[in-house]
Amino acid sequence: MNIIPYERKFKGEHFSCGKPALDNYFLRNVTTDVSSGASTCFVIIDENESVIAFYTLSADSIPSVDAPHELKKKINYPHIPVILLGRLAVDQNYKGKSYGKLLLIDALKKSVLVSKTQVGSMALIVDPIDEEAENFYVKYGFTKIPDSGKMFMTIRKIEEAIGLSS
C-alpha cells in the first residue's frame, strides 16, 4: 500500500474510524485545510480510490515556558518550532492491519525530511484524542508534555528510531 498526498477526487464519504471528531474532520474539513495550506494530508486508498486511512501534518510551535526541558534547553526563543501530527485515523474496516503504524512511520520520516531540508523544527507533537490514541503513541516512543495533554518526540530521537541519524 502506498501513502500518497490527499486529493479531492478520493472517495471519503464512507470513511469511519469510529471516532466522530476524526470522521467529521475528514468529511468536512480536510479539503479546505489542504487547499488553504493549513495542513497537508496523506492517505492510503484502496483500488476504488476510497480512503482507508489518513494523517495530517502542519507547522506549529509551543511556548518555551510550556516545553519539556529536553526542548527548551537547546534554544532561547519564546516559542519552539515543531511539526504537528494533527490527526491520524484508520477506517474501522481496516483496523488491526498495521495501517496506523505505517502512517506513523511515514509521518516520522516526513518530519525528519522537512525539518532537515525545508522548515526547521525540533520535534513532532501529537495531541491524542483519547487514551487509546495516547497508548498508541507511547508504544512508539512519544513522551507526555506535563499539564498539556500533548506528547512529543524530538527530531533527533526520530532519526535514531528510524535509522536516519548521521
From TrEMBL:
Annotated GO MF terms: acyltransferase activity, transferring groups other than amino-acyl groups
Domain of life of the source: Bacteria
Reactions it catalyzes: glycyl-tRNA(Gly) + acetyl-CoA = N-acetylglycyl-tRNA(Gly) + CoA + H(+)
Annotated keywords: Acyltransferase, Repressor, Toxin-antitoxin system, Transferase
Listed transmembrane segments: none
Pfam families with a match to the protein in the record: Acetyltransf_7
InterPro entries in alphabetical order: Acyl_CoA_acyltransferase (IPR016181), GNAT_dom (IPR000182)
Alphabetical list of SUPFAM superfamilies matching this protein: Acyl-CoA N-acyltransferases (Nat)
Protein name in the entry: GNAT family N-acetyltransferase
The species this protein was found in: Candidatus Opimibacter skivensis
